[in-house]
Design a protein that fits this description.
mainly alpha, Leucine-rich Repeat Variant, two-stranded antiparallel ribbon, disordered C terminus
């Protein structure tokens, strides 16, 4: 059984609890009436009918509520008994029992169990068939209550309800004469579509039937016999049904016409009843980058869209700065006609429709009552605490109006607003159910573009944001816009607006840039005009989403400056949610394409700039230097902080964030703080957490400015990690990850003593406690990440006992049972093993290896992926140690441990791609590291064979391209070990065959480049094996050269030149090693493809080797020398008498050099290498 928000609710949207002393009395009354009903037996006499009527009236008139203490199974049993007492030929009693079913299920919030549902469904369906048409309204209401959240249990009745001649299909048809019956029939269908988590969805054929029925209703005009309010409720039910199909039923809109038709009606009803606007839409919207058809009925001049105001009223409100306090649970806004609309919100004071999540039982785990949507005041329905879903419910008074506040006109506007909200919430579900690349085909239908001179602006989501009188609708529109913008970075990246485009046509990139500019303009207008704190929060969140995805490095300057200056006053808004979202927006600005010169200048501007904005909607501002407070303790005050270079004063944003985190809050903004604990001296927790995140983003993106605050940040971290709140501790630890220990330190070097002082403060402070705090594993993991961010130079300068502490703690935490901690520890060990001061310590490397091998066997994929990465790093350390003059490390490193590492890497190479990519990297390094003393041992022979087979298998597998690239790289690494029997071992031909297959046919050109590089690694002819093997490699490389432009993926074309360069290098390398027996096959291939090969090698020689992933580029002189060496080698080969192959190949090479000499304009003679 499930229950939801009761219908009888307070104005704030919170349930009205029944008095405790009244609950037993109500429960007893229900039991007394139920017992009387159960004692009756079917009787057709008039006295019996009268008694049943009276009992039903008493049951309906009882003042039930959620806390009445009545068991759901008792309600179900009573309803079954009531139906058994009422024969279907008694229309009045059938009507009354239907009202009883509807009333009890709604007021007591009961979902009928399967045992009783079957009987009640059969009864109500039979009643519709047999009873007079005037009873159908009540019977359908009862049916809607029964099927609510029970769709999966109604399978056997679906053909009768939703089949071609099904009851609901007939009653919801356009031909239905009674509009109320039609509306309730649609409501029944919507309730059938509502799914419950853990239960089967409605079957696909019925999903499609319902979807088409709802779509037809939305596409059909209002019939003449239907009043406006009934029409609005019909639309709400149809929209609710489609939303249920998209959310719970996981229905996918794959057909363009189907999606286009839905989007067309959604756009139409987004503006339903909006004052001063009446648009006509085509039946279907089609994806196109061009502006969509938008037919609008002309409107009166005084209602012109050119005024960006919803809000003549809002401006009046802003001019009257009254100290009136609006309750947090309720937001009031006068509409143009003078009525007031109450916007029910959640306890935190914000509209609960955030991050693209619409209200639904499946997403929130809360069930709402069967929705009737009827227009009669005082009838059934429910109120939900979720304002975002208020359109889906019918409150106890059916609306947020009263006759005194505008009568029918106000009632009409309220229902129209609910239709607009319903369309927007349904659009939100549509966005979640389709791919983003499909959605962006309809970008211009919903996102504004800069209007042409003299033409009106297109109707878009911003029209609602700027002009809709309902704050709830404005918030819904902003949530839809946020959902569209979320993840749009790749789509928006094509925008370009850095130069003036004077062309006969407008490029797509300029159109997108224009759209981005218009979004900035409209959202900033909305920011200034908005009076509702909840909607204001959504505007700022929407701006943050836009800032996070827009390509400011390709746009003209000033966009971010305008946002920055507009948002600064809101940091001191009286509503905590507005303050938090303002910090989120500032964080988005400092993280987008960091570092941006425009943001660098904004950070350096005086702290008071922008805080005195006269257009601000927030009159509750402190003086510009509000954050320059006396510090809470001597540590911050005594810290000597020098201003960053180029700035006239300290970075105001860093000082602001530090003050929010560590200093007591001001009384002026504490009135509506919803996130602070009672009696807390600090800002609310969400504010402090957001400030810490902004500090971390500043440290990552603008380290040149934050480096001056290194020790002050250390104080902040120590204070946060010493607090009791785990979330503050966690974000304090994460701040360190973004602080100077990142790679930024290389670009903006700090004095080493200062970095060492910072880390000494951390290690003598709260960090060891956090590392040992097993009660908070997330904090432990974050502390491990922080420990791994220390720079090698700083680590080696730490006191010896602090170094030992770090190593000991990490090795100890590797045994943790928590997967987050174990993954973070594995990664940290993989960082430490690369430190120059540790990598030659055999004991530490061995201990780290054993810890990593243990983590490679963990059940968690994340732990194994981190361990595989660390194993790759550890084997990199082995290779580095090989190159040192001192051989002691290689001699002391355990052979048994090498065996264990090889076995673990082989097993890991069969794992998921995340693990496999680093496992093959480790295999290549390990096989490279093996010494002749290892290879000679019989125990290694089998493991070497298995390792190479694992690499070959990975090269050939259809895995991720990163995995195959690493496998080819590893294969080249293996070939560099002269101790391995390359050329004579059985695996030689398999290895070369795998690489030649990849170089000729792999779809990814970077993998082809790496395989060609691996084929050019062996330095001796005998390592290439037999003549046949050599010929196959040569032939494959020529084929690969020929196919170097054959790709269906245009993204691969940029690698074509690099691929040809690498293949040409490999061909010349093979020529420089060729033996006399190899020459005939080379000659044969050159006779067939000589011109093609020659042209590419000449191109290679002229341009030099381009930089690619295989190493540093070669100069033209070096590439020229490679050909000369190959020519010299050919001249040194002793060919049999009469053999023309050598002469042909030498002529081929000489011609290449001659062409290069001629093209370079050199008059020098070609060296006479042919006489050798």
């Amino acid at each position: 059984m499930a229950a939801v928000q009761v219908a009888d609710s307070l104005p704030s949207g919170q349930p009205r609890e029944a008095p405790r002393e009244a609950i037993p009395e109500r429960r007893n009354a229900f039991r007394r009436l139920s017992a009387r009903l159960c004692a009756l037996r079917p009787d057709d006499s008039s006295s019996a009918r009268t008694e049943i009527h009276l009992l039903f009236d008493q049951l309906i008139s009882e003042n039930y509520s959620e806390g009445s203490g009545v068991a759901p199974e008792d309600v179900s049993a009573l309803l079954v008994q009531a139906c058994r007492l009422v024969p279907l030929n008694q229309n009045h009693l059938v009507s009354k029992v239907s009202q009883l079913i509807h009333h009890l299920l709604n007021r007591l919030q009961v979902i009928v169990d399967e045992q009783h549902l079957d009987f009640l469904l059969a009864y109500t369906i039979s009643a519709i068939h047999q009873c007079s048409s005037w009873t159908h309204m009540e019977i359908l209401q009862a049916l809607a209550a029964l099927v609510y959240c029970n769709g999966s249990k109604c399978q056997k009745y679906l053909p009768e309800l939703l089949g071609k001649t099904g009851l609901l299909m007939k009653l919801s048809d356009l031909a239905q004469s009674d509009p109320e019956v039609r509306r309730v029939a649609v409501h029944c269908m919507a309730n059938l579509c509502l799914s419950v988590p853990g239960q089967p969805y409605l079957e696909e054929p019925y999903q499609n039937i319902c979807f088409q029925a709802f779509l037809t209703i939305l596409q059909s005009p209002k019939s003449s016999d239907m009043d406006d309010i009934t029409f609005c409720m019909l639309l709400q039910n149809a929209l609710k049904g489609i939303q249920s199909l998209l959310n719970g039923g996981r229905m996918k809109l794959t057909q363009t016409d189907e999606l286009g038709a839905l989007l067309a009606v959604l756009k139409k009803f987004m503006f339903h009843g909006l004052p001063g606007l009446n648009i006509e839409m085509p039946t279907v919207l089609y994806p196109t980058p061009l502006p969509q058809y938008d037919g609008r009925t002309p409107i009166k001049p005084q209602q012109s869209e050119s005024s960006a105001s919803r809000p003549t009223l809002n401006k009046k409100k802003k001019s009257k700065v009254k100290p009136k306090k609006i309750q947090q649970g309720e937001e009031e806004e006068k509409e143009s006609s003078g009525e007031i609309e109450a916007a029910s919100v959640t306890g935190t004071g914000r509209v609960n429709l955030h991050e693209g999540n619409t209200w639904s039982p499946s997403s929130l785990g809360v069930q709402s009552l069967p929705l009737d949507g009827s227009g009669a005041a005082g009838k059934d329905g429910v109120s939900s605490p979720f304002s975002s879903s208020s359109w889906k419910r019918v409150s106890s008074s059916e609306s947020d109006y009263s006759d005194a506040e505008g009568g029918m006109q106000s009632k009409m506007r309220s229902y129209q607003a609910k239709v607009r909200q319903g369309a927007l919430v349904c659009f939100l579900s549509t966005i979640k159910s389709i791919e983003k690349k499909v959605l962006y085909g309809y970008w211009s239908a919903f996102i504004p573009d800069t209007p042409e001179l003299g033409s009106p602006q297109s109707v878009s989501l911003m029209t609602l944001t700027l002009k809709d009188p309902s704050p709830k609708t404005r918030a819904c529109a902003l949530q839809v816009l946020s959902a569209i913008l979320e993840g749009s970075k790749q789509f928006l990246s094509v925008a370009e607006d850095t130069s003036d485009h004077r062309r006969a046509f407008t490029p797509f990139s300029v159109m997108i840039a224009s759209s981005i500019r218009e979004l900035h303009r409209c959202l900033l207008l909305a920011l200034v005009a908005e009076s509702s704190s909840q909607t204001l929060t959504q505007i700022i969140k929407c701006l943050a989403n836009l800032v996070s995805n827009a390509p400011y490095n390709r746009l003209k300057l000033s966009l971010l400056t305008k946002v920055w200056n507009q948002i600064k006053p809101y940091i001191r808004h009286k509503d905590v949610n507005v303050r938090v979202s303002s910090l989120t927006l500032l964080g988005a600005i400092v993280s987008t394409h960091a570092p941006l010169p425009e943001v660098q200048l904004l950070l350096q501007q005086p702290c008071s700039s922008g805080l005195g904005n006269s257009n601000s909607a927030t009159p509750h501002l402190s003086p510009p230097d509000w954050w320059k407070k006396a510090p809470a303790g001597p540590s911050v005050e005594e810290t000597s902080v020098s201003s960053p270079k180029g700035s006239s004063e300290p970075c105001w944003l860093i000082r602001l964030c530090i003050s929010i985190v560590v200093l007591p809050k001001e009384d002026s903004c504490s009135g509506s703080d919803a996130g602070s604990a009672a009696g807390s001296a600090y800002e609310p927790s969400p504010m402090r957490l957001e400030a810490l995140q902004v500090l971390a983003l500043l440290a990552r993106g603008y380290f040149s400015m934050t480096q001056a605050y290194l020790m002050e940040l250390g104080e902040v971290i120590c204070k946060c990690m010493g607090e009791a709140d785990p979330s503050i501790q966690l974000h304090g630890a994460k701040l360190r990850v973004g602080s100077p220990a990142m790679s930024w330190a290389a670009a903006f070097p700090l004095p080493l003593f200062q970095v060492v002082m910072f880390w000494t403060m951390m290690l003598n402070g709260p960090l060891p406690r956090a590392l040992q705090n097993s009660e908070h594993p997330t904090l432990q993991a974050s502390a491990c990440d922080a420990l791994s961010s220390i720079l090698p130079e700083a680590f080696s300068s730490l006191p010896n006992d602090r170094q030992i502490l770090c190593i000991t703690v990490l090795l100890g935490l590797n045994d943790s049972k928590n997967r987050l901690v174990k993954a973070a520890t594995s990664r940290a060990l993989g960082v430490y093993v690369l430190f120059p001061c540790l990598r030659q310590d055999v004991v530490f490397v061995a201990d780290t290896a054993n810890a990593i091998l243990m983590s490679l066997e963990d059940k968690s994929l994340n732990v194994r992926a981190k361990a595989a990465w660390s194993l790759g790093n550890l084997t990199d350390t082995l290779i580095v140690n090989m190159e040192t003059p001192d051989p002691s490390f290689q001699e002391e490193f355990s052979g048994l441990l090498l065996l264990k590492m090889l076995r673990s890497a082989i097993e890991a190479s069969k794992d998921k791609d995340k693990v496999k990519s680093n496992a093959v990297r480790a295999l290549g390094n390990l096989l490279h590291f093996l010494q002749p003393s290892h290879i000679e041992k019989p125990t290694f022979a089998e493991i070497i064979e298995e390792s190479i087979q694992a690499l070959i298998s990975t090269v050939l597998t259809e895995a991720a391209m990163k995995v195959r690239w690493n496998a080819c790289y590893a294969m080249g690494n293996v070939f560099t070990n002269p101790a391995l029997p390359l050329g004579t071992a059985p695996w030689t031909s398999q290895a070369y065959s795998a690489l030649t297959l990849v170089v000729t046919s792999c779809k990814n050109f970077k993998v082809r480049i790496r395989s060609a590089a691996a084929l050019s690694v062996p330095g001796k002819r005998e390592q290439y094996g037999s003549v046949e093997q050599y010929a196959r490699i040569w032939n494959a490389l020529v084929t690969a050269l020929q196919k170097s432009e054959d790709t269906i993926d245009f993204l691969e074309f940029k690698y074509c030149a690099s691929l040809r360069t690498q293949i040409c290098q490999a061909l010349i390398h093979l020529l420089s090693l060729a033996s006399a027996s190899d020459l005939p096959c080379i000659k044969e291939i050159l006779e067939l493809n000589g011109n093609m090969v020659q042209s590419y090698i000449v191109q290679f020689l002229k341009s030099g080797a381009e930089g690619d992933d295989t190493g540093a580029p070669h100069s033209p002189q070096e590439t020229d020398q490679m050909v000369r060496m190959a020519l010299k080698h050919m001249g040194s080969i002793q060919a049999p008498a009469g053999d023309t192959a050598r002469r042909t190949i030498m002529g081929f090479l000489e011609e290449i050099l001659a062409i290069c000499f001629e093209s370079s304009g050199s008059q020098g003679a070609l060296p006479g290498l042919t006489n050798q």
